Amino acid sequence: MPEGYKVDVSKAAGHTYAAEKAKHYIDFGPLPTYPICMLLKGDHWDVNSFMEQWSAGGPLPGVPSYDFNKIVHGEQSFEALQPFPAEGGRFKSVKKCVGVYDKGSGMVLDTIVDLYGEDDGVHYCRMGTKMFVRGYGGWNGPKGPKAISYNPPNREPDAIDVFNTAPNQALLYRLSGDFNPLHADVDLAPTVGFPRPILHGLCSYGKCGHSVVKYFGDNDRTRFKSIEARFAQPVFPGETVEVLMWKVPHQDPKLDAVIFQARVKERNALVLTNGYATLYKKDTNAKL
Prior knowledge:
Blueprint: H1 9-13, H2 38-41, H3 50-54, E1 71-80, E2 91-102, E3 106-117, E4 123-134, E5 159-164, H4 169-173, H5 188-191, H6 201-216, E6 224-231, E7 240-248, E8 255-264, E9 269-280
Antiparallel strand pairs: 1-4, 1-6, 2-3, 3-4, 5-7, 6-9, 7-8, 8-9
């Protein structure tokens, strides 16, 4: 590379890692939850407008206009139907709104997105998103269905993983395509109730998915089946996130289940709750 184009990666990323011997894994591939990043990124490399990406397709009939800066992630689910291709490709998403709910202090927009291969039509995954619009409740609308509760067993976690977020963690994660200014604009954050920009909920969510596969799936992404969780409180970049996991029985003998939570160590605050993930057992032939 010409001298004028060299990049100091350690300075750009803000941290360094000890040198490691590179290994080639024949089964290397993206983390199972990676397709969630594609919902806002689209197929272009450049920065996009969060409001334009979120409102693509036009407004929902009957839903009043609202301040996009008041949107926070409420819940997220993900079900892998086929392993995501390591070589990439072109994909199409089919999005539908399945509910708009009045929660009193805000409004919930409940959507489902199915992701397909553009050429082969393979159904790769289904993603469920509940976005909470703060301050837009109280219009006597439906409350929505009661959620299933996944309470941790009354014992110590079977595994705890630690995620030391960097001070610039949100700036790094936003490169995945979520350019919501709430995660970067120091002037905007206080106007919507936060002392400073918060970390993307999906950053912590993705780490939880990675932790589950790491500790209970032998780092085999094809064993991953599904994950869901609720975003309880924000994480601020620079905080330490602990992922607490309990292995629990599943009614399907071919599956293992994991209940998990994520908490910020410095504040002892739960930031992800009602976490539940499923994986195919190691000795089953029923993997994707």
